[in-house]
Automatic annotation (TrEMBL):
Residues 96-227 form the G-protein coupled receptors family 1 profile domain. The chain crosses the membrane at residues 9-30, 42-63, 83-106, 112-134, 164-190. Keywords: Membrane, Transmembrane, Transmembrane helix. This is G-protein coupled receptors family 1 profile domain-containing protein. GO terms for cellular component: membrane. InterPro entries: GPCR_Rhodpsn_7TM. The keyword Transmembrane applies. The keyword DNA-binding does not apply. It is found in: Membrane. It comes from Adineta steineri. It comes from the Eukaryota. Its main location: membrane.
Amino acid sequence: MIQQEMNRYFCPICLIFGIIGCLLNILLFSQKQFRNISCCTYFLVASISMIIILILGFGLHAYSVNHSNLVHTISSFYKIRSYIAQSFMMIHHGMCVNSIVAFTIYHSLFTIIFGDFLPLLIMITFVILIRYNLATKQQRRQRNMYKIKGSTVRLLNSSNYQALMMLFVQVIFYIVLTIPWMIFSIYAPFGRRIHNKSNNCIAVEIVFRYITEILVYTYPTLSFYINTFTSQIFRDELVNILCSLLISFS
């Protein structure tokens, strides 16, 4: 019942707002002001992959309300969907598994390492490296201050640090929304070995798996809104674009 209601209302809302947000991300990060910032190239590519993730995630959940779930009825579609979703999940950052315990453990370890821990480690590492790179660039600009106007230097520093802040906040949200799925991925292969489960226990596992999966797909939905609340430059550029569109259509 909970899953049906969330598929009917929550998933379509997240899908609509998520795709709109990702399209606005692509539009904004394609602007000249952001193209000069290395972090924004990542945001641009990530926004494209997030659209695919949203369609494969929330889109299929919303479709299953009034139709048979393609993931459960077509085995080949299930496998292709899982492969594509996880591949694009790694870019911006229920599987078919064998019932044999050894395969479930292998799959869980693979998912946790390459789908959870490794992307988190890469994201955190690059945040640290980008922070160090920005500090180095700032020192270099200060030494060459006489060649560059002071206002230009301040603008570059502000843009770089706000882009870094957007990346930092997105990493935090990614970690928070991914941890429940990581916990379930660790539990799942061992839970399969318990044969005398009550119906309540099975129901709780199904709901917990569903919620953790939904949380993972929620991250792409929030990306644009995280950027909007985090960065003043991002908000200003968004307002400028929206005003230009209103003027052009008026």
